[in-house]
Design goal:
The structure holds 2 protein chains of 2 kinds.
Chain A lengths: L4 H27 L5 H9 L1 H29 L3 H30 L3
Helix pairs in contact in A: 1-3, 3-4
Chain B lengths: L18 H32 L1 H11 L2 H28 L6 H25 L1
Helix pairs in contact in B: 1-2, 1-3, 3-4
Classes of the chains: A mainly alpha, B mainly alpha.
């Protein structure tokens, strides 16, 4: 990593976004009358909830990727292994984010 | 390298472990734990989409003792990382670096995050 400014800024911007989205999710889930399937479906299908939830998942995945990157750079020194680890982490985070957002979109579109 | 009488960095055997170090490690540990939790969150959303049977099976897993402990652990990780994250953001503005301030904010973060976890599970 030659230049860390972008990483630093992105980590903070996503952190601040999560300071809002995180509690929103915790409070919303707690506020549901029950966690029965229909209730959760209806909650996610609500457009505003869907948008916020998708934002939450994407931001979480990005923030998580940035954090894991620091951990990998701290502990995995061998250049090849470092690169491979970062690559796997990137793919894994991408898949998790895509699965989450795809599920939210499908639930929102009522199929 | 010339020999000097300058103190060296931590000799762990004679070093009084500062509370701030515990918090630093916990920040990373809770972060990594939540990175794994993110997989579960995405899977949870997937079960919501894929129908009530899959969703019910997920709920069965989370209502086991291990499932409950994991959820409580992840909620603590969230509240802790949240509170300590705010502490980090304050540091980013150049404030709170004095030893006493850092120690005080460390205890405050521990108090708040355990308190929030307790409130979330017991009273809400």
């Amino acid at each position: 990593m030659k230049n860390g400014t972008g990483h630093f800024v992105a980590q903070r911007v996503t952190a601040i976004a999560l300071l809002l989205l995180g509690p929103w999710f915790a409070v919303s889930i707690n506020g549901l009358d029950s966690l029965e399937h229909v209730m959760v479906m209806a909650f996610v299908a609500e457009p505003l909830n869907g948008v916020l939830l998708a934002l939450l998942c994407a931001t979480l995945a990005y923030h998580s990727y940035l954090g894991v990157q620091v951990v990998i750079d701290d502990y995995v020194h061998a250049a090849g292994l470092n690169k491979a680890s970062l690559f796997i982490s990137r793919i894994a985070h991408l898949i998790v984010a895509l699965v989450a957002v795809y599920a939210i979109l499908r639930i929102g579109s009522g199929t | 390298m010339s020999k000097s009488d300058r103190p060296l960095s931590p000799h762990l055997s004679i070093y009084r472990w500062p509370i701030t170090m515990t918090l630093s490690i916990l920040h990373r540990a809770t972060g990594v734990a939540m990175s794994l939790g993110l997989i579960v969150l995405a899977y949870w959303l997937w079960t919501v989409l894929s129908g009530s049977a899959n969703y019910a099976r997920f709920n069965e897993l989370t209502s086991t003792l291990v499932g409950q402990l994991l959820l409580i652990g992840w909620s603590f990780a969230f509240f802790y990382h949240f509170a300590n994250g705010v502490r980090h953001l304050v540091w980013d503005t150049g404030r709170g670096f004095e030893k006493q301030q850092a120690n005080a904010s460390a205890w405050l973060v521990l108090l708040l995050s355990t308190g929030m976890t307790a409130v979330y599970w017991i009273w809400l």
